[in-house]
Amino acid sequence: MSDNELGTYLRTWREAVTPEEVGLPAGTRRRTPGLRRAELATLAGISVEYLTRLEQGRDRNPSAQVLGALADALSLSLRDRMVLRRLVKEADGGDPLVCGAAPPLSRTPRATVRAVLDHLEPAPAVVLNWIGDVLAHTTGYARLFGPVGVLDAEHPNLLRHLFTDPRARDAFPDWEREADNLVAQLRHDVPLRDPYAAELAEELTVTAGAEFADRFADLAMAPRRVGGQRVEHPEAGPLRLLHETLALPDDGQRIVVHLPADEATAAALDRLNGRHPGALRAVGRAG
Fold this sequence. Notes:
13 helices
């Protein structure tokens, strides 16, 4: 096994991507069909000298921002971005230990919180922790968001789904707005210097690239506590939802409840839940 797997991986991809694939002229005098170091460095916004150090193994600890920029420039798939991130972690000796002074990240809702979910059926409702992990949900939530892939992962996370699952683009017509809000929550609703949020942000900076990183760097964005949401459901069609967030500050969790914003959505959710239309009522906006 090579002791410079990261450098080899980057160089292999650079030599495999043609100039035409990234919008550059092919030129006439090329020793290889791939990109020159200078071309990749320019596309990624880094210096040629730094890219050379990475490829030669003289620097094995690039930032998540640099990795994300390189992945964007090379148009890497999600799988290849994950490999790139893993190679950096392995070269750096593995993931850093979580600081012992950091508050523990909640992974399990209390029994009383689960009881609240039971009483909310069949409304779509979910319990989330501060980095967007799905901890528990109603069957109504599963019927609404399961078919678009939100719950497919072993440990579902709303940000990871939104930024890395291609189905999210089709499911949420207002994807840009959804992305702004979830990143703002990650930026502003977590404990100060939280290592769990930092780890997720580093991961998504690599796997999602600039679309996540630019939002995470924007301190001006503020999360929305209430608001509307449009969903294109593969079975129920277009839906219009409103949501309310119920904070559980002692647990580092929140309950998000989705409600139909019009009668057509109410009827569609009733049909998804096997109920006669009229069981759920549309909620109009106040004011």
